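Feature request, filed as a ticket because there's no other form

It would be nice if the structure record came with a short human-readable summary line next to the tokens. Right now we just get the raw output. Example of a typical job, pasted below so the devs can see what we mean:
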Amino acid sequence: MQRAIARISYEILERNKGADDLCIVGIFSRGVPIGKRIAEKLSELEKIGVPFGEIDITPYRDDLTSAGQSERTNIPFDVKDKNVVIVDDVIFTGRSSRAALEAIIKRGRPRSVQLAVLVDRGHRELPIRPDYVGKNLPTSRSENVRVSVMETDGCDQVILL
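Raw output as currently delivered:
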């Protein structure tokens, strides 16, 4: 996982020609610690602080009801004219990514929005493709991918169930 995060970080820097006007937004729940690690790696490599935020996509999902839930989004910076990299643990149908895109655009007009995922398992239902992928993991629709991160689960691992 650490190698994948490092590789994604280098790819982000190369594509964006450095970290100027770059910000990272992690999707709750496991996209947050992965995104935070990427932001820290970018800051370490470029010697400048890379803004990091957390986004709760629940109110923007088209397959869930958000009644009675409070939004946990914390984006302490303006996304206007920034290169925003949304980070998630796994991309499957693309619906979470679509919801995150909607949530970001509601907060302002970024220069660009890019998507980084630790695992791409295929089976898209929407025309969404990640810009940065830690690992492509072809799966059947009946299989599940579970990502565990040290910050939440006490270990870093990806399990195919």
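Something like this underneath would help us a lot:
The chain has a mean pLDDT of 94.
Residues 31-46 form the longest helix (16 residues).
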